[in-house]
Specification:
This protein is α+β, with helices and mostly antiparallel strands. The protein has one domain. It is built from 3 helices and 10 strands. The longest helix has 14 residues.
Length: about 140
């Protein structure tokens, strides 16, 4: 069963660590592919979200902000994701190349692998209110 933690409890449990703002989040070919995937307007099929500002600095800032204060979900397989409600528009959701809606949150996946960590914008409507499994404080998951 997926577990959810506030940022403080995830830090205290050693599930996450603060990211160095000097890290290069496009340092591997995998990360470059993910950066392009989530910053270039789609033309093909499927569901995709893209950041509203495609600059590297914007992308990096979303990763740093999410890692610094987002809530944490620990999946059944042990993988960790960060979730952050930005309080402002972070990007757009597309379906089969067509605009669907603006979105206002960010998710980081694979944060424990510095060659694979990447982010994508997501909508807060897809998130749910939850409580930290350790301290009971309210979080988004």
């Amino acid at each position: 069963m997926t577990k959810h933690y506030c940022h403080s409890c995830a830090l205290s449990k050693g599930l996450i660590s603060n990211l160095d703002p000097q890290l290069n989040f496009t340092g591997s070919s995998y990360q470059v592919d993910k950066y392009i995937k989530h910053t270039v307007e789609p033309t093909g099929s499927g569901q995709i979200s893209i950041f509203n500002d495609p600059s590297y600095d914007n992308y990096k800032n979303h990763i740093i902000n999410t890692a610094a204060s987002g809530s944490v979900e620990q999946l059944d397989n042990g993988k960790i994701n960060y979730v952050y409600y930005a309080g402002q528009q972070t990007g757009f959701h597309y379906s089969h190349g067509n605009f669907v809606a603006p979105i206002d949150a960010v998710k980081i996946v694979l944060p424990n692998d510095l060659s694979m960590i990447h982010a994508y914008p997501t909508g807060s409507l897809g998130l749910t209110s939850a409580v930290c499994d350790q301290c009971g404080n309210p979080i988004l998951s």
